[in-house]
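Throughout our pipeline, every protein is held as a single compact record rather than as scattered files. Nothing more is needed to write down the fold, since each code stands for a local backbone conformation. For reference, a complete record is included directly beneath this paragraph.
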Amino acid sequence: MIKYLTFSNNNIFKLINLFLRVAPLAIKFLFFAVLSKAMEADDYGSYTLITTTITLSIFILGFDFYNYSIREVLLSKSQVFRKLFSTFVLYLSTYAIVALIVFGCFVIFSDFIESSSELVITLTLICFSEHFCQEAYRMQIAFKKILLANLLFFFRVFVWMVYLTVEVIFYSNDISVIYILKIWMIFNLITVFLNVITAYKPIKNNLNNLKINIQFIKNGLVISGLFFLGTLSLKTIEYVNRYIVDLFLGKEITGVFSFYSNLALVISVYINAIVVSFELPSLIEKGNSKEINEHFKGFKNSFMKQIIIIVAILVLAVFPILKWQNIPMYEDYIYIFFILVVASAIINYSLVYHFYLYIKQKDKTILILTVKSGVFNLILTIGLTYLFGVLGTCIAFFLTSICIIYLRKSSSKNIDYE
């Protein structure tokens, strides 16, 4: 992405897309900072746990099927539309099954569930729409519909977060968790509608291919199952520590930890949104090339530069944010930020080796090393949090990052990564 900052006619388009992708990330960063100041630490902790649960639910809904479908579409150009149609039929079927389960559980256990039906419906619709929009975005990027993908992403994330941020900063309005979730849901549903509208013409032109490829789905579920287990292990590394902090230390410390954790995870969000979205599809297409290692050298260098830049920005930004917050409790735990940001940088850099394994279709290897890392992280986080509090949680995350990069790098070396 560094090369996109060099001015040329060709790069104007890339800069526009860069803005459309970075601006939502920036406002999301600001939005969480504003909420951390406007909300009590325990309320902020509750909200971050809800958003974390939504994030994890998206991976469960998708079953990581996109890892299989996108790779199959890009590496093999046969029956492309039929594969895409089959993929989204699978997703819609999953939504229907999950909706029935949620509805059944709410009816059966209504006497024991403290949440209102309004909250349950809102959260369910957010999960479905968030996943659908995410999958549509991935497909659009894979087919180089980059401007369309980023325009829809910009609308889905940027607009409502700007609106709520302005409400809090300039009008000092108190906003509840349910109010935030409702606004989030509305913009997601509008984006789903816009995605369907923009896909109308391709669907109309391929009506003869609107057939379900059962074998494609079966093969995909078997292979994506490996990715799914690996992703769950990876996501537990990123997010389960919040639940463990909440269990041992309470909502207030969870709010503080989540605040710094959200700052550190900006690295992951940026890398996935910018570097991966722009560069990974082209790397996948070159997966069968003899020069794949040469392509990866350039990718690796660009990756390192991106991580250094985003880490520098975060370090420069954290102190002005703390001064603006003027909340002593957050300042007392500043060490959390530095440990987490270093660990997050290491984990993200290790993705270079993960992508190499992915393109070389070493799916079982990916599963084994991520499960190992996940189990290592879970045991370490529980033990160190219990013994040393939130400092132990941070140390566990840092040690896990060292474990991940070692396993990924050594596995790549075993298959001739230079």
Q: What stands out?
A: The CA atoms of residues 77 and 339 lie 45 Å apart. Confidence is low (pLDDT under 50) at residues 1-9.
